[in-house]
Amino acid sequence: MPEIEIDPTTRIEGHHSTTLSVADGRVVRAESEMNMFRGIESIVLGRRPSDVPQVTQMVCGVCFTCHRQASILAIEDAARRAGVFGSVPETGRLLRDIMEGMFLLWNHAIHLFTLAGPDYSDAVADTGFARLDPVEGDGYRAALDQQRRLLQGFSEFGGRAPHPLTYAPGGVVSDPDPETIEEVTETMAALDEWLGPTGELEATIERARDRRGPTDRAPGLYDVCSVLVAAAEEGADGFGVGPGRFYANGMFYGTGDESLVLPPGIYRDGTLTRPTREELVEGITEDVSHAWYTEDSGGSPGDSPPPEPAPEKPDAYSWGKAPRFEGDSMETGPLARLVAAERDPGRLRESLGGGRRRSNTFNRLAARVQELLLVREYVLEWLDALDPSGETTASWNDEFSGRGVGFWGASRGALSHWVEVTDGEVTGYQLITPTTWNLGPRDADGEPSVFEAAAEGIPVPDVSAPIDVMRTIRSFDPCLGCGVHVHGGGESFETTIEPHAPGGE
Amino acid sequence: MAVVVGVGNPTMGDDGVARAVVRELDGANDGGPETAFVGTTALLALEAMDGASRAVVVDAIDAEGPPGTIHRVRADDDGAAAEVLMHDFTFASAIRRCRSAYDLPERVAVVGVVPARIEPAVGLSPSIERIVPDLAAAVDAERTADRPSGGDRFMNASWYCVDCEAEIEAEAVDDHERQGHSVRGRLRPERLLSGDPWEAGESHNAGERPEGGVE
What we know:
Chain A has helices at residues 40-44, 52-56, 64-81, 90-115, 122-125, 138-158, 178-195, 201-209, 219-233, 277-283, 334-341, 348-352, 361-385, 434-439, 450-455, 467-475; strands at residues 3-6, 16-23, 26-34, 167-168, 171-172, 246-248, 265-268, 271-273, 284-287, 322-325, 402-410, 413-422, 425-432. By secondary structure, chain A is an alpha+beta fold.
């Protein structure tokens, strides 16, 4: 029974590895290891609330906007509960939705073309989809161009990318004129044209199945469908099967009533429920029994102190904690969001993924494609509804005491920030990220995380190349944060850093 | 060099599809593929492939799907997968038997299409006629996809036997395990499969590689 360590598992960022035990050609146990200490929670202590989003967004250069947004929502929630804040004006909310939506589209394009998509390209798996080949494929290059344009458009509203400057507690401090809105709309129209109509999903799947190549009407759709066709042909509906419990935070306020465009949801034992804020606050805990933190660092995130490292702790194998909802591991991500929203455009998951609520590697990919198409339509609607003369921000004052939670979605899944403010100063902070939900370690009962459970049983015909394990890890779109912050008190350190060249040493 | 080999009988309706594809490719010839239509004669196919580094065989095939469905079969392993061809010889046996006589390509791929009609007739049925440009594009894509095969494209593996305290070859893992040894593997995935993005094609948007490269 060889033990295999795969390191790194991700195509960008090097902070995740996995140790597999393989017996009789199958994975019998997986340990998911996060190889970094984030420490962002410690850095924000003692700061004023309105400074915090600027710090938390730097947890990562890929997931930047959502850590800004979740932080702002947490702080606004705390201020609202303290009775010193009302609500963000609709135009401000819509601007945030647009930026978050564009960010999500950018991220899903990265996933489908750079982080996970290459596993289904001709270069890796002889699938005949050379357009997906990294760096050289026509599909890859077209997507790269769209990603660039998306971030350029994003920075029209956000000031810059990554790490925008404009949304802050109270609203959005940029005030875009009609010309700027028009420019962003043109960017989105180009993306819309590249992707093509959602209604052609099923026909495009057929086209990709026959390797007929893209049409001018929907080149992007052809490429994302190629990923799905290759995944289906590689049997991805049959591996990477998680425990089948899903958790989604709601996201996007949109133009309608108070309900969220993508609603929150908990799916367990065949039942979908809409959790209230209180149920989530009560139900979410973090387990640290296999994480390199002191026991005090676990428990309810609203009450526990920021994580205190314990690198010598026996039985620990990860810098990630193990979040649980009412004691259960929960899968989160676009699949969880679309299960919660009860959406299955093109019936992709129903017809190719073994059922729209089935947890498997194919369905995770399919849900990303579906969300890419849906959110593209939403962002276009929101841009159309944006009133250039509307108020974008309410007045804001940091001087209050209270606790708040910001529930939001990163492209990778449910994200929550938890804050405690005392007399205008942050005294407690926790962030719980989708990747710890999906790829955290085991808990005190030995219950594996979603990925650890999903990896068990995956066939490994060639122990030197367990590609279906890689495909499964990447289907969760793991992102472990670029922000390796080491605080050394009064000491100073000097080190030489060799940046990674893609693909090589 | 890659060669496209069309196989089939144009007097049997859609079995002549490969000839139409070869003509389509020849018509669009811009220094592209070398092509040969060999009818149903194995020796001509072998002649056509002689000296090529890879071959793409086009034919009507008996496979799943409605008429017009395009299938791709790769036959890196001595053409074993090419048994799907609908003729009185198989490429698998022809290639296996004739390796010593011909300089045959290591990689043979088959791009096939499910026919609508196989009966004495000249000319293709309309549904197959329509698919010819797509089939030619699929053949061309197959011809130009140029990658080594095997897992080492995306994973660098090293193996260590804890009991022998030595690095071992991947092939030796089973032996050591049979002796009750504890074996550990360390896999380092290739990330973007390209050692140097600056050399990834001439139309790169980022322009010239900076002086001295990226350190």
